[in-house]
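Give me structure tokens for this 96-residue protein.
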Amino acid sequence: MSPLKRKKLSKIRFELDKLDNSLIKIIKKRTNLVKKVLALKEKKNQIVDQKRIKTILKNIKKKSLKNNIDPKITNRIWKNMIWSFIDYERRNYKKK
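Here you go.
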């Protein structure tokens, strides 16, 4: 790789790192909202809402296409995020 390309790569990676830091802050905010949602659930079987999951994924696909983003990428990201938070809820559910 040429020195010029190496420098460009370094700049792009720096921007990616900054973006990752922003995403971490967003994930923290989302986690706090999920905690509030979990506190309202009275039964453990309320954690997974298949209808809501379908709606979210459908909306993400529409938004992805509208913004010229490959919907396979966003679908995979959102599915992983949803199921990661479902796992979080299951691990943190307290019987009432």
